[in-house]
Inverse folding.
């Protein structure tokens, strides 16, 4: 291909059999850092093409924002895996690949003759990564789940929300994206081993386990404490201010409990004399006078906008941050200065502004070498180059609905 | 025993709290030798020099609260499968030893605010001089350069500026009703491990190391892609959906029998909806024109939620989840932490692992994040106690004699104990940084 800029993962071949968010984002993580990714969609397209958002709310399979975001740096082919010919072509692609990523229900690919065991026989160096809500085996592996159902079963849903109200999920999709990045990491580890003289292997990523066993120490807190903890339990110590406070133009989050931060905050407010006040002079006496302090603090806050509070407090090293809405994220001075959002031109959708690099490598850039593929855009190129299928064959395959 | 994927790779973890330490742990899970270099004599935020006011998450057996810095769950959770040493990087000798370690290593993860490594004289240009093949990841909250350079934060601050705090609130309440959340730490942790691997892949091809600037905020933003794109395309600012979905309905968390018992039920298709009505024994819901199609259900979901809640509150959450799953309806009990330990599925898959911590003793710990078929991962090293591996690292790796090791302690370059005043915030801050701040 024309892409001559070397990425960190250049030379790695990835087959993306995914749909929706998890597997496609995992493959995108690999592709955005240089891997050669082929995305296989069913002839009717990845359902993510229907998710939107769409420019002017006009649905169009080539203009879905989430799809355009999730599928950068991929060549796209269509293939009906449920046909004998389709499965056979897929095996051809699996023989080419170093990595295969998928998120079908456990057992589905095996039922088509595309399970790990049969692909391994074909390509012993293949790393196959499967992402599902509950993993490939175990009593719940056959359970159906949306992101929220899996999230409910991690204990994080129970923990999130006000004590006197219903538990609340995180914003849509973030748990799926987290499973995707976890899977990308697991994939590279397995590939390292394969390239290092090992062999391929099957990587089983359960969204539930990936969430439970990453940070958030509640399970270990429970173990150490010998009791369950609820939304009502305040685990943080008695320091203040910590929590969400109003400013003149919105809300600000403070995580500045503790003596050191309290001192810094008094300085940031231009009120160092508060530290001489017997109510606040030492950490021991502060707790009963929380409300009195907050009265002073709130007045100071509401007279200022978030940008000023942020600047002044951070200048003194107070941990705080403005709570931004999505439109404000685009104007965040840090992201603007770092030119985070990336303008990408798509032949049908036009100019699209996409989230940028999750990290920046000094030597090997993250880049969008190509926008998300149109449905079947690279059928001829991929099937021709990799599997030796010519135009005539392709006409026949198209007529029979295989591609 | 099978060789683990990253055996032979050495990683230095120079980070605190959650994102960096967990990222390094993930490399350790995959077999890398991770050496955590811990601050001395200043205690890191997650290691309380004196027993904290709240005993929650603090492992004190009976009245034994010795070595309190080793007893905090918030610290131990993020620091497994690694060796731990203490080093005073403000002392020239400490700096020298650190540089020697870096020279022997493949990856360095540093998580201090932007500019800190430079002030210590340990930034990338310096370290590249001793190890051109080094993959170094700097991961301050908002990246190493830009107007927020030097700003300090925890995961909750990243959550705020990314827009996630706003988006995960109750739809009928303002952001002050939304508790802090540290999901961005989890994101940054896996992203850091991923970044380290990409650097290693490039190094294997080219022989060259490189520096990686990881902004935890930028790592998180792609995960909010839908709302970002909706703004980019339509100038529409996303609002919190609560437990509802952009298009599925019913989609929420419903009360069940008992106190604080809930079930999540999420229906996307007509087929699932019909199955739900049958399983609930409420065939009249099927006939109700307000709920006949996907779009009808979405428009009338508040009414639908009320009906479903009336029905679910008489049910046992686990039995109901089981029954709905049998019927083909996506549903799951909202589990508490303790219920995870009793869950048959997680138990069968070995989601938690036992390990013996040098001070805390034998406990159950969070397990691995994924499963490999050929090189199974497991908890090989319990969370490291403070300075647990000083001798091992200083003597075996750096070739110091025992006299030299003693001299290091005498000079204050290293030590295995924090003084009570090691953190000014000991009394009220010890547990604060890592856990949701709930006002």
């Amino acid at each position: 291909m024309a892409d001559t800029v070397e990425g960190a993962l250049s030379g790695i071949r990835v087959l993306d059999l995914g749909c929706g968010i998890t597997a496609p984002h995992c493959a995108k993580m690999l592709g955005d850092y240089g891997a050669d990714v082929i995305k296989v969609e069913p002839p009717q397209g990845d359902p993510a093409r229907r998710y939107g958002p769409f420019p002017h709310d006009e649905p169009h399979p080539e203009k879905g924002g989430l799809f355009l975001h999730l599928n950068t740096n991929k060549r796209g082919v269509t293939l009906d895996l449920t046909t004998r010919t389709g499965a056979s072509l897929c095996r051809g692609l699996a023989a080419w690949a170093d990595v295969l990523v998928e998120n079908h229900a456990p057992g589905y690919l095996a039922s088509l003759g595309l399970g790990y065991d049969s692909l391994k026989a074909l390509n012993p160096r293949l790393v196959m990564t499967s992402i599902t809500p509950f993993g490939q085996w175990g009593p719940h592996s056959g359970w159906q789940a949306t992101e929220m159902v899996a999230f409910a079963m991690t204990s994080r849903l129970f923990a999130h929300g006000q004590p006197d109200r219903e538990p609340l999920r995180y914003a849509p999709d973030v748990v799926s994206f987290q499973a995707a990045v976890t899977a990308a990491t697991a994939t590279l580890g397995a590939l390292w081993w394969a390239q290092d003289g090992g062999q391929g292997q099957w990587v089983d990523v359960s969204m539930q386990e990936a969430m439970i066993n990453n940070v958030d120490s509640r399970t270990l807190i429970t173990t150490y404490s010998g009791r369950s903890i609820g939304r009502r339990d305040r685990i943080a110590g008695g320091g203040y201010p910590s929590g969400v406070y109003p400013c003149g133009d919105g809300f600000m989050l403070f995580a500045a409990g503790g003596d050191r931060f309290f001192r810094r905050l008094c300085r940031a407010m231009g009120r160092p004399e508060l530290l001489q006040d017997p109510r606040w002079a030492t950490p021991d006496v502060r707790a009963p006078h929380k409300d009195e302090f907050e009265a002073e603090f709130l007045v100071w806050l509401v007279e200022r906008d978030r940008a000023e509070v942020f600047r002044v407090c951070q200048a003194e090293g107070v941990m705080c941050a403005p709570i931004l809405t999505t439109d404000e994220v685009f104007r965040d001075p840090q992201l603007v200065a770092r030119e985070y959002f990336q303008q990408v031109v798509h032949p049908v959708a036009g100019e699209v502004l996409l989230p940028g690099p999750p990290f920046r490598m000094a030597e090997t850039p993250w880049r969008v070498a190509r926008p998300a593929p149109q449905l079947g855009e690279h059928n001829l190129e991929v099937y021709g180059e990799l599997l030796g299928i010519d135009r005539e064959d392709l006409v026949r395959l198209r007529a029979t609905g295989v591609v | 025993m099978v060789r683990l994927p990253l055996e032979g790779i050495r990683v230095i973890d120079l980070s605190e709290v959650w994102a960096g330490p967990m990222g390094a742990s993930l490399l350790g899970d995959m077999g890398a030798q991770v050496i955590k270099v811990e601050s001395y004599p200043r205690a890191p935020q997650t290691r309380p020099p004196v027993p904290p006011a709240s005993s929650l998450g603090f492992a004190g057996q009976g009245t034994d609260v010795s070595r309190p810095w080793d007893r905090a769950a918030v610290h131990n959770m993020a620091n497994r499968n690694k060796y731990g040493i203490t080093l005073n990087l403000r002392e020239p000798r400490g700096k020298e030893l650190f540089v020697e370690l870096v020279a022997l290593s493949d990856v360095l993860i540093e998580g201090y605010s932007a500019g800190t490594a430079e002030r210590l004289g340990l930034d990338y240009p310096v370290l590249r001089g001793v190890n051109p093949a080094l993959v170094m990841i700097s991961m301050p909250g908002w990246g190493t350069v830009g107007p927020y350079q030097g700003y300090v934060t925890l995961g909750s601050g990243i959550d705020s500026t990314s827009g996630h705090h706003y988006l995960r609130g109750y739809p009928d309440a303002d952001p002050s009703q939304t508790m802090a959340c540290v999901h961005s730490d989890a994101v940054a942790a896996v992203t850091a491990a991923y970044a380290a691997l990409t650097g290693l892949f490039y190094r294997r091809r080219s022989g060259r190391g490189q520096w990686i600037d990881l902004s935890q905020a930028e790592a998180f933003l792609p995960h909010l892609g839908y709302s970002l794109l909706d703004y980019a395309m339509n100038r529409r600012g996303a609002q919190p959906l609560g437990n509802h979905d952009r298009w599925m309905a019913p989609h929420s968390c419903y009360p069940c029998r008992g106190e604080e018992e809930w079930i999540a039920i999420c229906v996307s298709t007509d087929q699932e909806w019909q199955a739900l009505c049958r399983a609930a024994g409420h065939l009249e819901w099927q006939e109700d024109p307000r709920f006949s199609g996907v779009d009808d259900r979405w428009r009338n979901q508040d009414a639908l939620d009320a009906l479903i809640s009336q029905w679910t509150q008489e049910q046992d959450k686990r039995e109901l989840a089981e029954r709905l799953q049998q019927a083909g309806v996506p549903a799951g009990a909202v589990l508490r932490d303790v219920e995870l330990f009793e869950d048959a599925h997680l138990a069968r898959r070995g989601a938690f692992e036992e390990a013996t911590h040098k001070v805390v003793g034998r406990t159950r710990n969070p397990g691995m994040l994924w499963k490999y078929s050929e090189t199974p991962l497991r908890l090989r090293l319990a969370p490291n106690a403070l300075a647990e591996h000083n001798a091992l690292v200083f003597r075996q790796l750096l070739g110091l004699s025992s006299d030299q090791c003693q001299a290091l302690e005498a000079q204050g370059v290293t030590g295995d104990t924090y003084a009570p005043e090691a953190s000014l915030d000991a009394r009220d801050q010890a547990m604060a940084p890592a856990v949701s701040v709930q006002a």
About this structure: Residues 251-341 of chain B form a domain with the formyl-coa transferase, domain 3 fold (CATH 3.30.1540.10). Chain B is about 40% helix and 15% strand. Chain B has two domains: 10-214+350-431, 251-341.
